[in-house]
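Issue 218. Parser rejects a valid record. Input:
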Amino acid sequence: TPLRPFAVPGQLRDPHSAVAVFRDKKDLVSKAEVGRAARILQAIVAATTKVGWKVTGRPRNESYGSGRPDPDLILRLPSQDLVVSIRELDKRGRRATAFITQTDYYTHTTRTIANKNFEASGKLEIKLTKKWEDQTVLSIRDEPDTPLENQLPTLIRTLEIAEAEGEWAHKEEERRAEIRKVR
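Output the parser choked on:
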């Protein structure tokens, strides 16, 4: 599987609907990094559609649990559905939330405010998990010498290799089942 070049756009001209929802969401990425994270998500959308896979946002009627954040994108690969979530790490490299949602006890109104304990670092992490499981398939993060923008071709290639291996395993299982049937 060759390494294809994929570029992150400099500006968002016509973003995917899930990327537009991400720009308005205040959750795991600080205000300063939302633009960069949205451009990276748009590049993932463009790369996966170029490969031939489908990309969607979170359907309104699906819930992913109270402890898990809402997914930013859902990649529909031929063998499985993967949830893509992007977050900003704090200065120590830990996963923390950039915003806090508070609910007023008496009026039941909610408001989202910036987390004062979160120290923005500008380091982003992309995490791919299986849709209905909390199993991490792939996780990449900004490194000092390679930012996420340069790791996008490797991410897509890794997914392509996993799909090719899954297809091969399926064909091999069919072949073995046919041999068992003949025996």
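Fixed in the parser; the record now loads. The first strand starts at residue 54 and ends at 56.
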